[in-house]
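Most newcomers find our protein records easier to grasp once they have seen one. Sequence and backbone structure share a record, each on its own labelled line. To make this concrete, we reproduce a full record directly below:
***
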Amino acid sequence: MMLPVKPPQSFQLPGRCIEGIDEDIIQTIEAPNSNHFLFITKTRLFVYQAKPFAPLACHERTAESIELFGVNFGIRDNLPLGTEVKGFLTGQFCDPVIDDKRFYYVITKNNFLLVYELYTKTSENSVFKEYGIPLNLPSDDSLLHRALDDDMDDEVLTVFSAKENHKVIQNGYTISKQKGFLQFMKNDDIAEELPIRRTELKLNVVLKFDHQIFDVIGIITHDIERTEHANQYLLVLFEHGLQVLKLEDFKLIDNKLIHVINGKKLIYCAGEILVLSYDEQQLSLEHILFDQENVKSQNIALKGPSGVFKDLVMFDHLLVVAFEKCTIYYDVFDKILVSEYPAITHVSCISAISPDTMVLLTENNSVIFMSKWGNILLSIPIDESQFKILHCSLIDTKLLISGSNGTLQLWDLWKKLDSSLSNFRTSQVFTLLNDNNDILLYSPMSDSTNTSTFQTIKLPTKTVNNNISTCKTNGILTLMAVYVGNKDILLINFLNSNTWISFDQMNIKNIDWLGDDYLLCHVTDEDSDKEMVKCYHFPLLNDGSTNLEDFKTWEWEVPQGYQLDNFYANTLSTYKMLKFTDEREDRDDASKKVFVTSEILMVLSNSHMIIFDALSSVHPTGVNMVQKFHQYAEYNFPENSLRGLKWIYRYKEGFIAWIRDQLVIIGQQEDKQWRFQVAYDRVEQILEIYEDNLVLLSGNEVLLYDFAHIWTVDDPLITTPVIEEEYPISISLDTATLHNISCITTQKLTKLSISHGVYLDKIVDRNLTLGVEGDKIDEKYHDLKHYKFCLEKILSSKVLEHEDLNSILSLIDTYDKNSGGIKNEVGKLEIVGNCLRKIETKHWDYLFENLKLTPRDLITKCIALSEAKILGTLLMVFLNYDEGDSESKQEEVTTKSTKRKNKNNKNKNNKNKNKNKNKEKSHTNGLKESDSRETSPDTSVSTILKDETVIGQVLKIFVSTATLSTTKEQAQEYWDFALQLIRFLRALDSKGNTTLAQTCLDMI
């Protein structure tokens, strides 16, 4: 997830170069490994440094060039460093860095390729180390080390004064340190500057083609044996096929054509080059088989016409393609169409900004932040009078949106870090961070509605170039571990006192908490190239040690021949006792009991797994002391079966795992072979794992399960939809409350806020449907804050649908019985009063019929119990009903079986209305055919409101309660009730035929 930190900064390109040609920024492209944004107008190519944002180079085309080659149309680049393409070449690897040069390809309208050469001394190492921008590299460790070990001499921008011949700007900042354009990232608290690197741009060569160019991908390779020898390849997509061009110094050496019909877009995904092909009748993805010079076509059957292609985006293995009329999700690994949705908006551009978030630019000039599976996080309309948005790109947390008239907007974004799924005994912690060293933590407390703000933590540094690769808090929010990847620093924060301890020279791949104060770290030893998992114990009373080895309690070395893909630590909700070391009856020492408190699942290369159990003694205060790590088991799964694993838990005789976007059940069959069964798909995130419950965000719904239901692939216990622009981030199972994040953005302010939604009514209603006894339901949920509101909500919904009310009314009676005290039926009266207030009057009779009560009964029961608050609610309901438009309400018919009877009632009431506009109508609308008799005059609303005895009693209670109120606000509320009642009575008897209104005034 990514959301704006603040409103964007706006910039404008220099004035137009060629008169008569607009300078709209038609496409941007990011180069994260060199810290550059590139973008094109119809006549120019610009290079900007991304962090800090600053112009570096520009190439302006002449009028003659425009006339000959055509205006710029699109820009493409090479595949990133270390990229492999299946079947393309053997014994070679791809590398865009050749003598510090990078190549970019601008497509023109007249089918020319302008090949630009970008020369810079900015290496991957300096980008990561000095700017904190994570490297866009494959998982090959040798390539990563080669990039980080690069000793290239980085140059920085230096500016000299032309008149005085002395340095004005050095290292990207003014020598005198005065504030200016190049210092907008700097303030007085920042100690370390971010240099602006020297970059040169030149047009290398122009390539001409005879056919329309739809797309281009560049590939530059080295021989493994001769790294100084480079081979240059261009994949050029035409309507008739894919042309594979081998070049040397951009002179043609070899040329092959792979036949692809109607190809529109080239896509690189998971080692493959794909071609998106479509026409009005057919949509397909062509998997290019370079070794066979052929394609494997995968036709995609859609529900209806797709319309015009708009844009596409890749999420690992998942391809999301937006058309005019629909959006499709295609799994490249499994080669299947996963989902197809109607287009929610007219998309013009899509960009992936995190592994689970994308930004959509729409034709109506809106910026939409959206989750992978289509949940809208934030929608921001942009005033078209400012500029028309056309394209966007992202580097780390910097989103660049470009558009008409050379306008640029630079957005700083919050970035969500992966939450720890390890502790089943506490709630998860939601974590956000930004480039200004801010870390936001959110975790629900027991009374969740009082928790609506983030806890803000500031990193103990003044530098702004920190790449926080992981940040994990323990379950009870007393410790936080932060790893700054580009500086090899591990930070531990004691949250209760906000004190930090730091450990440097750490090469950490992953961290997670085991229990509350044990930290597991996956580390590598650069000298021996060994991988280990080490466990460190951080008691709350720190002795001030700065040597991390002093905290170490256990280490495990990855077996030779394997690599550790990841580890998963699960602190169990229920501890399993193993043995007693002293079983004498006269000694019950809890410290002598040993429990299995946690499990650690080491997932190695080739889907090999080793499981350790943490054996602990448990102190009566709940503190665990790990006594031993015991190797429990070792498993071999089918090759690549755990690819994309995000979480795994040992359950029964198998495992429950989150693999890619699916929740998978892994079990052994009779032949001892492992069976992988997809239980639930489109899993966007796991919101909570608590005790034996698991809460998923799947597609556009939040689903609540227990592990037993997952194992048998049953329906969820609870399903609740995701609300637009209120994205679920946490859940409180003890209060049945869902916590959502929303973002408010204006021209001057951006603010994150938390909202809460209660889903307890869904749980209670499901229990009623399953036939669970009312006493058991009430015993479990009676004391929850929102329980009575949920009973009211269930009753209202069932009345509106004319469903059977016996079970919910019985549960309401049970609630009253278990509420204590001598005043029974108070809860029922309040619930019914609120229900009447929320439902239309045409549904009243269905409720009264099932209650076996009349409006008079409700009023008299409240009088007998002196329940002024409920009387006030009922009075306002009845008065509003009475003062409404009787004719329009009478025209509403609730059931087909009562149409004829209601028509007769309507005619009678119309006569009454003509006689007296304020006369109360009968509320018989909605009676069943079997009970379609006239409402008794003694029980109708209008009769009650004219009953001097009843009204006098009601008024007396209002006056008495107002007089005895302890606060001004409460007294005012009941005086208002009393005066409202008198105003009604005077209007009802405007001719003064009764003394009721005067009697009430005399009482006051």
Observations:
- Residues 418-582+589-636+723-758 form one domain.
- The chain has a mean pLDDT of 82.
- The radius of gyration is 35 Å.
